[in-house]
Automatic annotation (TrEMBL):
Alphabetical list of PANTHER family matching this protein: BLR1237 PROTEIN, TRICARBOXYLATE-BINDING PROTEIN
Matches recorded under InterPro entries: BUG (IPR005064), Bug_dom1 (IPR042100)
One Pfam short name: TctC
Protein name: Tripartite-type tricarboxylate transporter, receptor component TctC
Coiled coil: none
Length: 324
C-alpha cells in the first residue's frame, strides 16, 4: 500500500511539474526549423516571424536551415524532437501535404507526428517563360506549347518540389506533355530560364519577381484566383479562362505530445506577429499573403492539411511522379 502511495505521489509530481513547465514556457531560446536550404523563398517569412515572435514570447527565436529530401529532413527532425515547445517547424505544402504521397516511404506522418499551431501565409506561383518565347497570354502560351511541346522543356527546383508540382498541375489542366528538367533549387532553374536553356518555370512569386521586374523573363499568369500585390499587372490564370490554383503556404507545427498550453502560447505569438504592420508591408512587397485570422487556428490547420494531402495526392498519382 505504501509503495502505491509513493508511486502515486511521484506520478502526481511529474504531472504538476509538467503543468508548471508549460505555464512558465518559454524560459530559453527557441529554434524554428526551416526545412530548406538558406537563400530560398522561406527565408524571408522565417526570419521576419522569428524576430517578432521572439519579442512577443520574451525569448530569442533562432532559424536553423535543415535542407534535403524535399524538406523531409528538417520536418523529421521536428517530428522526433522533444515535445517541450523549444523546437518547431516552418511547414509548407510540400513537407506536410505533397510529400505524403510523393515519397514511396515518407519518414513521418504529417497528420499524426505533429501538433498544428497555425497557418499564417500563402504564396502563389507564377508562370514565367523565356523572354523570347512568342506568347504573352495563357491562350497564346498553351497554343504555342501544344504546337512545339516535343522540343520544349520546363524547369523546376527538383522532382516533387512545389514548383514542379505546380507546373505539373498546369500541364494537366491545359493538356500539355512537356519534358521536365529538375534542378537543385529554384535559383539554378531560374538562371537557365533567363539564359534560354529551358522554356518555362512555375516559380514562387517571391523569387520570380526580381527577374520579371528586370525583364529577363516574361510573366504569363499568376496561378491563383486573385492577382498578386507584388505583380498587380499580371493577370491570373483564372482571369484568362484556366482553372489553375498552384501555390505554397507556411504554417507552424510542433512535435506530437506538446502540451496544449504551449501550443496556445506559440499560436498567440504567431497571430500577434501576423498583425504587425511592418511584417505585412514587407511580405506584401514580395507577394506573400498573410491569411485571415479565422484561418490561423490549430483546428483549421488540422483540417486544411487533410484537404491538401487529398488534393495533391490525386495529381501526384495521376501524373505518376514518385520519389524513392
Amino acid at each position: 500500500m505504501r509503495r502505491l502511495f509513493v508511486a502515486g505521489l511521484a506520478a502526481l509530481g511529474v504531472l504538476v511539474a509538467g503543468q508548471a513547465s508549460a505555464e512558465e514556457w518559454p524560459t530559453r531560446t527557441l529554434t524554428m526549423i526551416n526545412p530548406f536550404a538558406a537563400g530560398g523563398p522561406n527565408d524571408v517569412p522565417a526570419r521576419l516571424f522569428a524576430q517578432r515572435m521572439g519579442e512577443i514570447l520574451g525569448q530569442s527565436v533562432i532559424v536553423e536551415n535543415v535542407g534535403g529530401a524535399g524538406g523531409m529532413n528538417g520536418a523529421e527532425r521536428v517530428a522526433k524532437a522533444q515535445p517541450d515547445g523549444y523546437t518547431f517547424l516552418l511547414g509548407t505544402v510540400g513537407t506536410q501535404a505533397q510529400n505524403q504521397t510523393l515519397y514511396k516511404k515518407p519518414v513521418y506522418d504529417s497528420t499524426k507526428d505533429f501538433v498544428s499551431v497555425g497557418l499564417f501565409l500563402e504564396a502563389p506561383l507564377v508562370l514565367v517563360v523565356r523572354k523570347d518565347l512568342p506568347a504573352n497570354s495563357m491562350k497564346e502560351f498553351v497554343a504555342y506549347a501544344k504546337a512545339n511541346e516535343a522540343k520544349m522543356q520546363f524547369a523546376s527546383a527538383g522532382t516533387g518540389s512545389a514548383i514542379h508540382l505546380g507546373c505539373a498541375l498546369m500541364n494537366s489542366v491545359t493538356g500539355l506533355d512537356v519534358t521536365h528538367v529538375p534542378y537543385r533549387g529554384a535559383n539554378p532553374a531560374m538562371q537557365d530560364l533567363v539564359s534560354g536553356r529551358v522554356d518555362y518555370l512555375c516559380d514562387i512569386v517571391t523569387t520570380a519577381k526580381p527577374q520579371i521586374d528586370a525583364g529577363t523573363v516574361k510573366a504569363i499568369a499568376v496561378l491563383n484566383d486573385t492577382r498578386s500585390s507584388a505583380l498587380p499587372d499580371v493577370p491570373t490564370a483564372m482571369e484568362q479562362g484556366f482553372d489553375i490554383r498552384a501555390y505554397t503556404w507556411n504554417a507552424f507545427f510542433l512535435p506530437k505530445g506538446t502540451p496544449e498550453a504551449i501550443v496556445e502560447k506559440l499560436n498567440h505569438a504567431m497571430v500577434e506577429a501576423m498583425k504587425t504592420p511592418a511584417i505585412h508591408e514587407r511580405l506584401d512587397a514580395v507577394g506573400l499573403k498573410i491569411v485571415s485570422e479565422d484561418r490561423a487556428t490549430p483546428a483549421y490547420l488540422d483540417s486544411f492539411v487533410q484537404s491538401e494531402i487529398a488534393k495533391w495526392a490525386d495529381l501526384i498519382k495521376a501524373s505518376g511522379i514518385s520519389v524513392d
